[in-house]
Amino acid sequence: VFNQSGPTEFVFRVFTTVPEFQVLLFLLFLLFYLMILCGNTAIIWVVCTHSVLRTPMYFFLSNLSFVEICYTTVVVPLMLSNIFGAQKPIPLAGCGAQMFFFLTFGGANCFLLAIMAYDRYVAICHPLHYTLIMTCNLCVQMLGGTVGLALFLSLQLTALIFTLPFCSHRQEINHFLCDVPPVLRLACAAIRVHQAVLYVVSILVLTVPFLLICVSYVFITCAIRSTEGCRWAFSTCSSHLTMVLLQYGCCALAYLRPQSSSSADEDHQFALVYTFITPLLNPLIYTLRNKDVKGALEKSRNCGSRSYCPIR
C-alpha cells in the first residue's frame, strides 16, 4: 500500500547497537579515512612538485588519487556520523545527491584505470612513439571524456531511480550509503526496467573498461619477448593489475549479480572493499612498488618550489 504522509526520507541501518563496538568501528573507519586522505594527497603533491613525474602515467595517477579522495569523502563522513546514537534521517534529495556523486566518482575511477592500461600499452608496445601519441592535449581530452561520461551515466541512472515511488514516509536502507541496489529494493513499484538500465550502465562502466584493460595486457604480453623485458614490463604493470582486480571484481559482484541471488550482508562487504580498501591500497601500491615515486618522496626535502605543468 502506498502510504506517504510527508516528504520521503531515509535512514541507514546501524552497524551495531553495542556502544563498545560503535567506538571501535568509528575509530577504525576514521583511521582508514585519514590514511586515504593522507596517502592520496601525498601522491598528488609528489606528482605536482617533481619534474621527473610529469608524464602521462603520473598525470593519470594523480587524478586517480583525487577521484579516490572525492569518492570516499562522499560516503565516509556521513557514515561516521551515523555510527553513534539514533538513526539520523537523510532527505530524498540528500540521498539522491550522494548516489549521484558516488556513481560519478566510481565511474570515473573505472574509466581512469582503463586509460592507465592504454598508457602502459603505448609505453611498452610503442616506446619510440610514446611522446608523439600520449600528448598533453590527448591526456586532457581523455580525462575530460572520462569525467563527462561518468557524469552523464550517473545522472541518467540516479534520475531514473528517484522517479520511483517509495511506500512510506521513512525508509530504512539496509546499507551504509545510498547505493543503487539497496535503494531499488525499497521502491513501491515494478523495477524491472530500472534493473535493466542498471545492468546496461554497469556493463558500460565495468565490463567494457575491463575488457579494454585485458586487451591492452594481451598486446603487452605479445610484445614482450625477452625475460628481462617481461620482468620490467610486469613490474610497471603489476600494481595497476592489483587495483584493477580489486576494483572491478568487487564492483561487478555488487552490480552485475542478479538481485535475487544477492544479500545485504554481501553488498556491505563488497562496498567496504571498494569504499575503503582500494582507495587505501592505491597510494601504498603505487609508492611501495614504484621506484620513481619512492625516489621522489626521498628527495622531497631537497626539492624547491617549481611551477607546475602536469605533463612534460
Automatic annotation (TrEMBL):
Instruction: Provide this UniProt record's keywords sorted from A to Z.
Output: Cell membrane, G-protein coupled receptor, Membrane, Olfaction, Receptor, Sensory transduction, Transducer, Transmembrane, Transmembrane helix
Among Gene3D superfamilies, the record links this protein to: Rhodopsin 7-helix transmembrane proteins
Predominant location of this chain? membrane
CDD domains, per database record: 7tmA_OR10A-like
- Answer yes or no on keyword Cell membrane: yes
Q: Which family does it belong to?
A: Belongs to the G-protein coupled receptor 1 family.
Q: Transmembrane stretches, by residue range?
A: 23-46, 58-80, 100-118, 130-155, 196-220, 232-256, 268-288
What's the short name of a Pfam family annotated to this entry? Answer: 7tm_4
Show which residues constitute the signal peptide.
Answer: none
Name under which the protein is recorded: Olfactory receptor
Where does the record place it? Cell membrane
* Domain G-protein coupled receptors family 1 profile, chain residue ranges per copy: 39-286
InterPro entries attached here? GPCR_Rhodpsn (IPR000276), GPCR_Rhodpsn_7TM (IPR017452), Olfact_rcpt (IPR000725)
The UniProt entry lists membrane topology as: Multi-pass membrane protein
What the entry lists under SUPFAM superfamilies is as follows: Family A G protein-coupled receptor-like
Instruction: State the species of origin.
Output: Gorilla gorilla gorilla
Q: Name one GO molecular function term.
A: olfactory receptor activity
Look up keyword Mitochondrion and say if it applies: no
The cellular component terms of Gene Ontology attached to this UniProt record, alphabetical and capped at eight, are: plasma membrane
